[in-house]
Amino acid sequence: MPAVEVGGMNRRHLLAAAFATLALGSATAFAGAAGSGPLPSSGATPRLVKVAVRTSSYPVYDARGKRTGSARWRISPAGGNCCETYVSATPNGRVIESGGTYPWYTPDEGKHWYEVTFDIPDQNDNGPAIAGGEGATVTGPGGDVYGVTWDAYSGDHLQAYRYTAQSNTWQASEVVMKSPFYDRPWLTYAKGPFTLSGAKTAHVLDVTGGGLTKDIDTFSPDGLDYSDPSFSYYDEKQAPVGKFRIPVVRNSDADWWQPHPGTGTLPLSGGGVLRFANSEDLTGSKACPVARLMPATSTWQCVTTRGSFVGVVRQDSRGFLTEVYPSAGYGSLVLATSRDGGVHWSYTTLKPPPGAGVKLETQTLFDVVANGRLGQAVVSARFDDSAGNGHDMVFRVDSSQPRPRLLKTYLVGKGDLNTANDVTGSAGYRYDYESVALLRNGHIAVSFDDSTCLQPTVRDSTHRAPEVAILM
Fold this sequence. Notes:
- By secondary structure, the chain is mostly beta strands.
- The protein has three helices and 34 strands.
- Strands 4, 5, 27, 28, 29, 30, 31, 32, 33 and 34 form a ten-stranded antiparallel beta sheet that branches. The protein has a nine-stranded antiparallel beta sheet with strand order 6-7-8-9-3-13-12-11-10, with no helix packed on it. Strands 18-22-21-20-19 form a five-stranded mixed beta sheet.
- Helix 1 runs antiparallel to helix 2 (27-33).
- The longest helix is centred in the N-terminal third of the chain and has 12 residues, at 11-22.
């Protein structure tokens, strides 16, 4: 990206110095900050894995909360780790699971699962295998898949991988520029064009993570080479606030590249990306409510928009917006849709069925994806009942009309576990975040956790972990 002079140092040198400071105790991060560059990419090998697959039925409710029957789900412990199961979907019907060290995928809605292992040697002499990580993935145009996975147990590695649908090939690479202890990485795909390091690129991948701070991201033009640092809080202080109106642009790929809520980003169907509720991690200082990644410089600029945003926002293939946020008291969720870039909104309220929870387990324990071709959105959430047990559920919403309308609510799982959502619960059951995907045929993939969920790949002797359920 073009250099920006700051007190005798250009922006790139300043960020490299920041990485060097953060990299104490992280050999791979220090190597990146010192300028060694990304390691060469290598192949990755998918292999069919025999995992236990079962089916279960759980209640379905109508828009008024009346039970109307049951739905069958195909359930599997594919991938994931002790606490995280992250699902996404591709336009051709694949479900990708990337909560653990390696990505997994199923081409037939959970009947068979493949694990993709990387052909990258260990970098810190801790043995040939990389085990026990956590990761994130995002779908790009044409069914391409991009991902990152962090491994704390063999040298604080961060791996990047890419699946190219046209050639049906996987590649992987070591990411050397990173902050240490890259806990819970998040990944965003943004359509370009952008300029990175003086070169035009058709898109940008933005990865963020880290235990000390998540303020410094790294960008990639190809999903393998993450060597362009970005410090959003710093960028937002360097330029005057601009104005931006979200364009309403049709783009079929926008139904698939919607990231996890943890990113705090909104990839735009017409190109570009917004970032919400920006602050500086270490001090808590606020920068701006909305920032835009500027295409010519790949730096963030604070912008004002015609509408305001308070929750998780998606833009689907019609260019329409869907936003979800908790109601006051966290006893329900509000889903809003806009057809004019956020200027005007229509609303509906999503309440748990009777007996299936009284309050969100945490105020952020929900996920949403919107599909313009189907004219639907699905929202997964975990509500606690009065005894503290968590109930996973999916709300299916019709967004084909100007006013959104709840169609069905699905319960998933038995709702019989009291779970924690961070390291404070590591001695017991943990469920760190919700994750949901809406397939091209309207079927749903979702993460859930109850007493039946076991993950044979985790090291914990009890094998407690969330699982994947796919609506049949």
